[in-house]
Amino acid sequence: MIQDIYPSQLINTYYDRSCTDADSVLMYRNGAVLMRDGRFPAVGECTGQRFIYLFSIDDIHYYGAPYEEIEGYAPVSLYALRTSADKVSAFAAVTGRHLMQWYESHRFCGHCRTELVHSRKERMLECPQCGAQYFPQIAPAVIVGIVNGDRMLVTQYAGREYTRYALIAGYTEIGETAEETVRREVREETGLRVRNIRYYKSQPWGLSGSLLLGYFCELDGDDTITLDHTELDLATWLDREHLPDDDDRSSLTSEMIRVFKHAGQSGL
Question: Is the domain covering 139-261 a CATH 3.20.20.140 domain?
Answer without folding.
Answer: no
